[in-house]
Design a protein that fits this description.
Blueprint: E1 13-17, H1 22-33, E2 37-42, H2 49-55, E3 59-62, H3 67-72, E4 76-79, H4 88-95, E5 100-102, H5 103-112, E6 116-121, H6 126-139, E7 145-152, E8 157-160, E9 166-170, E10 175-177, E11 180-183, E12 192-195, H7 209-222, E13 228-231, H8 236-242, E14 249-251, E15 260-268, E16 271-278, E17 281-288, H9 293-308, H10 313-321, E18 331-336, E19 339-344, H11 349-362, E20 367-372, H12 385-392, E21 397-400, H13 417-426, E22 430-433, H14 437-447, E23 452-457, H15 465-475
Parallel strand pairs: 1-2, 1-4, 2-3, 4-5, 6-9, 6-12, 7-9, 12-13, 13-14, 19-23, 20-21, 20-23, 21-22
Antiparallel strand pairs: 7-8, 10-11, 15-16, 16-17, 18-19
Helix pairs in contact: 1-2, 1-5, 6-9, 6-10, 7-8, 11-12, 12-13, 14-15
Length: 477
């Protein structure tokens, strides 16, 4: 049996193993804000999370070493889900019987307990939706707490701690820790739940869509009878997931049977505007600075959640006008030599397709370059090769980079950029495989039209390609 976790009032020093990840780093900063003495360890702490940790005064010890525990003498250790069972620092925690928690358990233990848990989840859109809900409640004076899997521009960081009733959190279906293989989002015990989508992902821990649906269905069952489920019911897999719910369900989407719908949608360079309807009643017209059909759905689902939490529609409408988005989600990093460089987190083929479509709306008169790094555990595998071919065909030009750490994927399972490029070329798309970043940059520099968008998609640092590309383009001006 693990040692008993002390009550929060008895905890002074908290140490986080694998602290530089988005979730763990955010938790570290939240604990520091609450007055705990916080330390952490990781192999490295890159921006933006490294900057956020440093600004919070949190020491990050390099590497994983049992001696770190002797140096910091924590009252409690939080072990991230990136930590493997053989990690020497984690092994020392277990052998020395130091009290420990997983990341989601620590979030619930220190922050969610006693709050109205609002969980935004789904294969796509959960980071944007969490930021939208958190900002709308904040703008409306509800003073929520918010934990986001990205940096919300309205908050300037990935979290907000308020005194209001709501705790808004991004929930994902990935497993909790090496000692707890249940999905992380189950630990947040939602009272209000937003389910944006349900598709196959996380091929390293799930074998099928049905397994993922089962995890979401377990989450749905946690919502109490007097809670609320807001679900993207255009999606058949979502409808199947919520079918067994006991809580009230409000569906949103474009189909006639949805409770929340839109009409008279206008897409343009400045964003999207549309009428909002609930159960046949027109509530009003909103304007959002976000682009693309997928973000229209994110906004609509977030509106439904905030309405369910008691916000007036007029307050929601005003908050949307001032929403500034999330870093790494269609974020313009700069422009030079006629090229606008955009960073996006898209990695699932559905997200890739919708992000390219969003760029079309935002930059209607420019050539769209889709530059992609296969980096996630799913995108590095062959499972979605055909879907990627379809998604990338929407771009004017496509450049695929080398698979990230290919040696960690069996050759027979590994994603084949060359096959995707060959298929795109046969379909008439200007597509190229450039394993190295310098090759990608030079191809863009040599082939740019003077009115281009370089949409760079990766869930990682991608070798600093954004800064390096802008630097090279600046030389051409």
């Amino acid at each position: 049996m693990p040692p008993e976790v002390p009550v929060p009032e008895e905890v002074r020093k908290v140490h986080l193993i694998a602290v530089a990840g988005t979730g763990m780093g955010t938790l570290a900063c939240m604990l520091a804000d609450r007055g705990f003495e916080v330390t952490g360890s990781d192999v490295a702490a890159y921006p933006p999370m490294g900057d956020q940790l440093r600004s919070a005064g949190i020491d990050v010890l390099e590497g994983f070493n049992a001696d770190h525990l002797k140096a910091v003498r924590p009252d409690l250790v939080v072990i991230g889900n990136a930590v493997r069972a053989e990690n020497p620092e984690a092994q020392a925690v277990l052998s020395q019987e130091i009290p420990y928690l997983s990341f989601p358990d620590a979030v619930h233990y220190f922050f969610i307990r006693g709050k109205h848990s609002v969980v935004a989840t789904g294969t796509h859109g959960k980071t944007t939706a969490t930021s939208l809900i958190g900002w709308m409640l904040t703008h409306g004076g509800e003073d929520p707490s918010v934990l986001i899997g990205g940096v919300a521009e309205n908050f300037g960081r990935s979290f907000r701690l308020g005194d209001g009733e709501a705790f808004v959190i991004e929930g994902d279906e990935y497993d909790t820790a090496f000692f707890d293989k249940t999905p992380k989002f189950l630990h947040y015990v939602p009272r209000t739940l937003l389910l944006t989508s349900c598709e196959f992902d996380h091929a390293d821990i799930y074998d099928s869509l049905e397994q993922i649906q089962q995890s979401f269905a377990e989450l749905v069952k946690l919502v109490p009878d007097d809670g609320l489920i807001v679900a993207a019911t255009d999606n058949q897999a979502v409808r199947q997931v919520v079918a067994g719910a006991s809580a009230p369900i409000e569906g949103y989407g474009f189909q006639e049977e949805a409770d929340w719908k839109v009409s008279d949608v206008t897409f343009g360079p400045e964003g999207t505007s549309f009428n909002v309807w609930r159960s046949g009643e027109r509530l009003g017209r909103v304007r959002s600075p976000l682009h693309g059909r997928h973000n229209l759905e994110n906004v609509l689902g977030s509106i439904a959640v905030c309405h369910g939490l008691g916000m007036e529609f007029e307050a929601i409408e005003q908050a949307l006008l001032e929403f500034r988005g999330v870093r790494r989600r269609q974020q313009v990093r700069g422009s030079a030599a006629g090229v606008t460089v955009v960073e996006d987190f898209a990695h699932h083929p559905t997200a890739v397709r919708e992000t390219i479509a969003g760029m079309r709306a935002q930059f209607p008169d420019q050539k769209i370059w889709a530059i992609f790094e296969p980096r996630t555990n799913t995108s590095r595998r062959r499972f979605f090769e055909d879907a990627y071919i379809e998604a990338f065909s929407l771009a004017d030009r496509v450049v695929l980079a080398e698979v990230y750490q290919p040696e960690n994927i069996e050759p027979g399972d590994r994603f084949r950029p060359e096959r995707v490029i060959e298929a795109l070329g046969a379909a008439g798309v200007d597509a190229h495989y450039e394993p190295e970043i310098d090759g990608i940059i030079e191809r863009l520099a040599a082939s740019r039209s003077g009115a281009d968008v370089a949409l760079i998609m990766s869930n990682g640092a991608f070798g600093g390609i954004y800064e390096r590309m802008l630097s090279r383009l600046s030389e051409l001006e």
